[in-house]
Amino acid sequence: MRYEFRIAGTVSDVVLDEGFPEFESAVLAGQTVLVGRIVDEAHLYGLLARFQALGLRVVELRQVLEPEVSPEVTE
Amino acid sequence: MSPDPSPRHDGGGPGPEPPAAGSVLGGRLRVPPVPATFVRRTRLSERLTLGLRERPLALVNGPAGAGKTLLVCDWARTAPLPGPAAWLTLEPGDNTPGALWACLTEALRRAGAVPPGRLPAAPGAAATGPELPGRLADALAERPEPLVLILDEAEHLTDPGLAADLHTLLRHAGDGLRLVLISRTEPPLPLHRYRAADEITEIRAADLAFTPDEAAVLLRRHGLALSAEGVRALTERTEGWAAGLRLSALAAEHAPDREGYLKEFEAGHSTIADFLLAEVLDAQPAATRDLLLRTSVLDRAHPALADALTGRPDGERILDELAHANAFVTPMDHSWYRLHPLFAEILRVHLRARHPGLQQELHGTAARWLHAADLPDEALRHAAAAGEWELAAGWLVRDLALGRFLTDPGLAAAPGPGECGPLFAELPPDTGGPATELVRAARSLAARDADAAVRHLDRAERRSTAGTAQAAGVGLDGDRPDGDDLRLGAALLRVAAARLTGAVADAERAAATAERLLPRAADRTRRDRPQFTALLAVGLGAVRLWDGRIDAARQALAGVLRPTEPAEPAEPAPTAGAPGVAAAALPGRYEALGLLALAELWDGAPGRAEAHARRAIAAYEQLGLPETADGAIARLVLAEVAAERDDPAAAQLELQRAESLADHPGDRPGDRLRRTVLALTRARLALHRGDPHGALALLGHTPPRPDPEDGHSPEPDEQPWTGSPRAESRVAALVAAALLATGDASAALLAAARGGSDGALVAARAHLRLGDPAAAVAALPPEVGRTPGAAVRALLVRAEASAATGHDAAAQRPFARALAVAQPDRLRRAFVEAGPWPAAYLRSRPGLGGPYGWLPAEFRPPQGPAGGAEPLPVEPLSEREQEVLRRVAELMSTVEVAADLHLSVNTVKTHLKSINRKLCTTRRADAVRRARRLRLL
């Protein structure tokens, strides 16, 4: 599962690199966009708690299509 | 960096005082101080005051740094509360019943909220049970005014079971309790129900946000006077977020043009916390910055520990300055400081960015300091975070603490402070020395994988012999366990493994080793020593019982039951979630009593067996501790004793309790002795219910039936009693009894041959059935005098044999003796299972032995015209009493009845007392039986 998170404001590089090394990030229209793979629900909730612990406000969260469909995930 | 941060060495010199034992939990139980810069907002505090007058629950919800804690701190210190307040700051490790209820009990104790007698006596992580919330609620419900219980950082409570417990507590405590939850997230309580019933006061993020007017006051308190326009813009930019406003003030403090600096910040888009924190951090002097970054790995900082992490002696000064400036840290009890959780999280990120790899080293340093400061649980956590497995394992071995893995089988699943299972969950395979191997063995045993445990034990012993020469070259290292420590740890685990495998010789050898080494280890401080000796003795006792050496088992167990040594403190100081010494040693005592009860039962003394079993259970009830799987044996003994008295309802009740405590389906097979006794009791009760085939199946006895395919029967599965002669003979005797009950006396005779003296009694009965009284008398075991159960059965066989051969008068003497021997323990079963003859014999001779009212009704001559109908109770049962009795008849416990009827436990007990009075009974099982006979149920 790939997810995209939008965080209000520009997150500093220190926090992005050390706090969320597994995510690609970009700044769009005053928001920080993080995109990456989420292993399972536990990962997702852990991540939300982590945003909260670092004082980051999640304004949007959605599942996005995998960039390429690997053979074992075809339904 | 100072390699030896032990506070014991610098106690006399200048510098911070070492931490006091127990200060850590103490700090969490005190209402934190309110800084001078705090802005009281009456719109919020009045809502709390008014809300809690009527409603039992208040929820303060908001993101980190919203000012939740300070709001409630100030409210609790200054507002007119409906009653006294108890505070508890929760930690991630509190998300288990043991830890939470231990902390809550301690909080209630300190608040003096309930009479001391109503609280569990032992503070410790194990001090909980399903009854505890109900008991505390009962105690609270009697208060004249409510207690205000405040739980800060309730976001750590994610376990739905704990939320349900809190819900129960709140509902049953009635007007005796008000609960205030401070949390980042909604707690998993059924909040919708509270909302629907208007029983909740909520203060949420939007309420907590500062208005521009409030923000102006806050900024002025921080020495920042801004124009009204500046305040409005900053409030808008920070969305009224308290931490954002405070950080803005701190960041602007050092800027030459404050208003201009803030304008720039307002115009930017950076996220508030990490941007501002970086700014504030960079504005600090280098030493302060360094200390903040390094102490961010700690949950709480002590000045001396901070010095150990920075390698400079300025921790006390800097922490004190920071606390006064209200920048990052809050002082707790006894000179501990707590970093604001939001800042600590961001600081850790900065630490990783600025000093890659330093975090691990800091954890290692902190671990050593904490261990030297006698805070071993926190030390273990940091050692694990540092990946210093051999160090952590070495401490456990040196402190004789490996037994902790065995005392709580849930350990491996539940994370938390002082709980070693999850700490070692990330232990990489195939690394480390002998101590690490011992930890692996202990974890395997906790998971009941005896084969893996023995493999690790063998490897540990090989490595320790190989490593002894090496260690000698390294020199004296206080943290490292020596060869004796390793051998002691291995001995404990060998005994524990033998309980699973039945390797009796291994256990005896290991116990002898431990006995030899323990006196030598006596000179050192060992927190877990009482637990170690208790576990060793109980393990040895269990193995010896399984092996059938009852006197040897008694001898091993006796040591555990001797009164505890006076050296132990009367009330151990509570540390962060760690079980106190007394509480830790208790399970050993509890299990020892259960095993002694079993020894007496197997010796044929049901009265003494029952007394020991009841003492075991009472020991736990008094302390409010839950019964564990170790207590299953005591319950099984009670079931067997009830069965001997022909009280199937009580026997079934105890069996069910034992089953709920003992091994669950899907578990790996556990303790062999427990499994053996469980199978025996299940089978015996099935036989008593009139289901001999069921009993045979439970004992794995299948009639020999050649397989039609290849002509030989499949190998029987290994049973828990395989290898134990004593247990095997008990099983054989029971199989014989079941076969006799199916009517197959010849098969019974065959099986009884392997059943020892119990089997001989069954054989005698079988001969009677086959019409051979002489053979019956000849088959009786020669020596039964000491054991009432066997003696009664033998005497009844003699009596019946005499009667069958026409010597009616000669039958009288043994029959009267049988009645006399059976009377003290009310051993009805021996009479019932002997078939119709004893009842017929006694009915025809009413004058034989006097008033044997304890025998079943069919043994008594018919009385009066009513034909034995029982008189109705003088006073009818009330409706409530009938409701209670119906539930008791469904085998519900007192607490369950109380919860079901929304009554307090004490009320249910009162009802039970009056039920017993009205029915002229003394126990609930008797009351149920009598009520059934009277058709009241």
Question: Can you characterise this structure?
Answer:
- The complex is a heterodimer of chains A (75) and B (937).
- Chain A is α+β, with helices and mostly antiparallel strands and 75 residues long.
- Chain A is 27% helix and 35% strand.
- A four-stranded antiparallel β-sheet of chain A has the order 2-3-1-4, covered by helices on one side.
- In chain A, a hairpin with a 2-residue loop joins strand 2 and strand 3 (31-37).
- By secondary structure, chain B is mainly α.
- Among the domains of chain B are: 40-208, Rossmann fold (3-Layer(aba) Sandwich); 212-283, no CATH class; 595-689, Serine Threonine Protein Phosphatase 5, Tetratricopeptide repeat (Alpha Horseshoe), CATH 1.25.40; 725-859, Serine Threonine Protein Phosphatase 5, Tetratricopeptide repeat, CATH 1.25.40; 879-933, Orthogonal Bundle (Arc Repressor Mutant, subunit A), CATH 1.10.10.10.
- In chain B, strand 6 (329-331) and strand 7 (337-339) form a beta hairpin.
- The model of chain B is unreliable at 1-16, 121-128, 409-421, 469-477, 564-585, 711-715 and 864-869 (pLDDT under 50).
- Chain A binds chain B through residues 7-12, 14-15, 17-19, 27, 30, 32, 52-57, and chain B through 63-65, 184-185, 243, 268-275, 278, 341-342, 345-346, 349-350, 352-353.
CATH level 1 name of chain A: Alpha Beta
- Helical segment count of chain B: 46
Annotation field: number of helices of chain A = 2
Question: Oligomeric state of the chains?
Answer: heterodimer
CATH superfamily of the domain at 40-208 in chain B: P-loop containing nucleotide triphosphate hydrolases
CATH architecture of the domain at 40-208 in chain B: 3-Layer(aba) Sandwich
Structural class label of chain A: alpha+beta
Q: Strand portion of chain B, in percent?
A: under 5%
Main structural class of chain B: mainly alpha
- As a percent range, the share of strand residues of chain A is 25-35%
Mean pLDDT of chain A: 82
Q: Biggest sheet of chain A, in brief?
A: 4 strands, antiparallel
The spatial strand order of the largest sheet of chain B comes to 2-3-4-1-5
Distance from N terminus to C terminus of chain A (CA atoms, Å) equals: 14 Å
- Separation of the first and last Cα atoms of chain B: 76 Å
Shape of chain A from CA axes? globular
